[in-house]
């Protein structure tokens, strides 16, 4: 888990490209999985509402009423805050089917790409998970390649900080979209102040109900 200060300092670094800053910040604020966010295009983002609908891990295909499989998948909504909003482009009513949250990367040799993964303006390809992982590692490594942060740490840190701030277990489940509560217990940590307030509920001065 990384501290809020460490994450803020990383994203504030001037030598880091805006594309990476945006990805890292939105990973932290949405507590979404990197694979989910890397599949988004600019037009998939509700910039005014600060949210986007993603195909989540293990998402099942939609089914018609008669049981026939549909090509789409059930989508879930993730939300970000002002830190991400400041890095994203301003809302534009014109459609821009460009892959990736910000500027796409060069195509990967030998990788089969569909039209959705290519920018119609530049021909550049969507940032892959491996590329995103390597960029974060390179920016945070302290002792050579492989010693830096992992993409999942941003999701983990976001959930941990929410838990420390007093978010309930149900709120953490809604934010992370975990299906089982036991997978979130490690994030469910109350701050010392929250623990003091909790203890006051049963202290001598607490009101009694019968």
Strand order of the largest sheet: 1-2-5
CATH class of the domain at 4-145: Mainly Alpha
CATH architectural grouping of the domain at 4-145: Orthogonal Bundle
How much β-strand is present in the residues?
5-15%
Apparent shape: globular
Query: Helicity range of the residues?
Result: 25-40%
Span from first to last CA?
44 Å
Looking at the structure, the CATH topology of the domain at 4-145 is hpI Integrase, Chain A
Q: How confident is the prediction overall: mean pLDDT?
A: 79
Structure description:
There is one protein chain. This protein has helices at residues 4-12, 18-30, 34-37, 82-85, 129-140, 151-164, 169-176, 192-200; strands spanning 45-46, 51-55, 61-63, 69-73, 75-79. With 210 residues, it is an alpha+beta fold. It has a domain at 4-145: Orthogonal Bundle (hpI Integrase, Chain A), CATH 1.10.443. The protein has a three-stranded antiparallel beta sheet with strand order 1-2-5, with no helix packed on it. The protein has a two-stranded antiparallel sheet with strand order 3-4. Strand 1 and strand 2 (51-55) form a beta hairpin. The N and C termini lie far apart (44 Å). Residues 93-99 and 106-110 have low confidence and may be disordered.
Summarize this, please?
Helix content is 35%, strand content 10%.
């Amino acid at each position: 888990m990384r501290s809020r200060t460490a994450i803020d300092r990383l994203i504030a670094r001037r030598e880091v490209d805006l594309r990476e800053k945006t990805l890292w910040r939105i990973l932290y604020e949405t507590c979404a999985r990197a694979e989910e966010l890397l599949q988004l295009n600019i037009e998939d983002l509700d910039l005014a509402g600060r949210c986007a609908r993603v195909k989540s891990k293990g998402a099942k295909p939609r089914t018609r009423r008669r049981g026939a499989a549909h090509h789409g998948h059930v989508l879930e909504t993730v939300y970000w805050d002002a830190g991400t909003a400041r890095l994203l482009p301003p809302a534009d009513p014109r459609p821009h089917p460009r892959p990736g949250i910000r500027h796409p990367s060069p195509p990967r040799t030998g990788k089969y790409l569909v039209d959705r993964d290519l920018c119609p303006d530049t021909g550049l390809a969507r940032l892959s998970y491996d590329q995103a992982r390597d960029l974060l590692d390179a920016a945070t490594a302290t002792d050579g390649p492989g010693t830096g942060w992992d993409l999942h740490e941003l999701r983990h840190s976001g959930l941990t900080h929410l838990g420390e701030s007093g978010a309930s277990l149900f709120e953490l489940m809604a934010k992370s979209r975990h299906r089982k509560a036991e997978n979130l217990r490690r994030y469910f940590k109350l701050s010392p102040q929250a623990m003091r307030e909790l203890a006051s509920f049963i202290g001598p001065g607490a009101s009694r109900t019968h």
